[in-house]
Amino acid sequence: MHEDTIMTTRPFRPRRSVLYVPASNAKALSKLPGLACDAAIIDLEDAVAPDAKVSAREALKAFFAERAKAPKSDGPGEIVIRINGLSTEWGPDDLIAARECRPDAILLPKVETPRDILEANDTLDDEDAHPGMWLWAMIETPKALLNIGAIAELGRDPGARLACFVAGTNDLVKETGVRMTPDRRHLVPWLMQMVLAARAGGIDVLDGVANNFRDLDAFRRECEDGAGMGFDGKTLIHPDQIGPANEAFSPSADEISQARAIVSAFAAPENAGKGVLTVDGRMTERLHLAQAEKLLAKAGNL
User: Fold this and answer.
1) Residue ranges matching CATH 3.20.20.60 in the chain
2) CA–CA separation, 263 vs 104, rounded Å?
3) What's the CATH code, domain 17-248?
4) 61-82 pLDDT tens trace
């Protein structure tokens, strides 16, 4: 990575609902402008069969070419491209194609060490990729979890482009052999580890997919659990999951009201310089003020 690389500060982006869409599915791509998901990941990896990889890459280019000509429309506020791993036969060409499409971010699968991020970033820097293009990282292997602290630390360096972790729960189950239960109890320690590392690195983190998209009640419960663990949002495999995810990862009316009360209390002239207040019968410190301000900023961008 070049020492003189300059990246802009990461803007706040709501990422409550992030929908995977196969690059090879023209019908699904055409529906994106009408969807209320916060972001979409156009997938060249798992959702595309090996014999369709090259044609999917060409379809991706065509999609972005048409998107560039069209007037701004509703739909996802962020478009991300998931490429194949750089160690595969398709990965290097995917990365070049993704760079040329100028998405908001490129999602790297099977990230296991900081070097995986830095190597992709070097390719982007060498070709003067626009500074608003970020990198997201799939956390889906045991090695990734063992190295997650060092990977997350790259989030503190804007030049590394790292903006978000994505939990690859299906791959983690496959790689470790743990049993996937409805409450995900065997995965929870690793999911919490991802959240902790992401917060240490100052980046976002998204929960993994729920495979049974027809059981929306179970999906809502999984979203609520993910929000309770501290995830910023959830990755989705079907448009029907968008509404429940948006609801679960949005601040509630009560949370917004409480946050406003905290901000108002600390803003009162008589409380200037105070570190601790009583707000609605609760001891409230300035760390709660920072949390309240962050929640209100999030609510204002939804």
Assistant:
1) 17-248
2) 32
3) 3.20.20.60
4) 999 998 888 777 678 989 999 9
